[in-house]
C-alpha cells in the first residue's frame, strides 16, 4: 500500500455511495419534488462519506455483496445528512454553509429543511427494512434496531441535547464540563453513529460475536478520535478548508476537549484513540489495512 491507497479507496467508495444515494432519492414530478430536491441538496454532491466507507469496508471483511453494503451505507449517510440539516437550523447552530454550499434552510427555507430532515430519517429506515438490502429479515431488523439506538435519545439526539445544555450552562457562568462528561457527550452525539457504521458490515455478514465486537470497539475509538479532530479543525482550519464555518465552538461556549485540555493535549488524546482503534483490528490481518489507515487519516485530515 502507498500513501495514495486510502485517498483513492475513499474517493471510489464515495462515488459508489453517491450513485446509490442518487438512485434511492429520485427526482419525481409533482408538488413533492421540492421536498426531494431539498433531500438531495442535503445528501448529494459532497462529504467524505466516512460512515459509508466504514460500512463498505466492514462488509468486505465478511464477503458481503457490494449492493447490500452500499444500500446500508446510503441509509446511514441519509440519517447523518438529516442530523446535519437540523443541526444547521437557526434553532440549533444557525449555520449558513455546509460542505461548501448553502445549508438546506438557506437554499430553500426553514420549514422545507425540517421536512427534508424528517423525510431523510424515514427514508433511511425504509432502505434498511427493504428486502433488497438483505434476504434475511432478522438481519434487516437488527440493522434498523441498531441504527435507531445510535440515533435516538441514548445516541445522537441525546448527545445534541447534552451539547445544547452545556452551552446554556456556559452562558450563565456555570463550571465547564469535565473530561468524562465531554467524552460521554461526544460519544452520544458523534460516536454512536460511527460505531454503528463500523458494526453494520458485521451485522450484514452475520459475523461471529468476537469479530462484530472488535469492529464495534474500533468504531467507538475511531468516533472519539474523529470528534477531537473535528474540534481541532474548528479551532485551527479555515472555512475554505473545511467547507463550513469555523471558530464557532469557542465563540458559542461549546464543551470540547480542545477547550478543556488545549490543542496539544487534545492532539495527544486523538492519537491515543487512533492507536487503540487500530489495535482492535489485529484479528482481521492485512485485509483490514484500509480501516487501520482510516484511523490515522481521521486525525491528520484538514477537512
UniProtKB/TrEMBL annotation:
The keyword Transferase applies. Its cofactor is Mg(2+). It comes from the Bacteria. Gene3D superfamilies: Farnesyl Diphosphate Synthase (1.10.600.10). GO terms for biological process: terpenoid biosynthetic process. CDD domains: Trans_IPPS_HT. GO terms for cellular component: cytoplasm. InterPro entries: Isoprenoid_synthase_dom_sf, Polyprenyl_synt, Polyprenyl_synt_CS, Prenyl_diphosphate_synthase. The keyword Nucleus does not apply. Keywords: Isoprene biosynthesis, Magnesium, Metal-binding, Transferase. SUPFAM superfamilies: Terpenoid synthases (SSF48576). Pfam families: polyprenyl_synt (PF00348). Coiled coil: none annotated. One of its GO terms (molecular function) is prenyltransferase activity. Belongs to the FPP/GGPP synthase family. This is Farnesyl-diphosphate synthase.
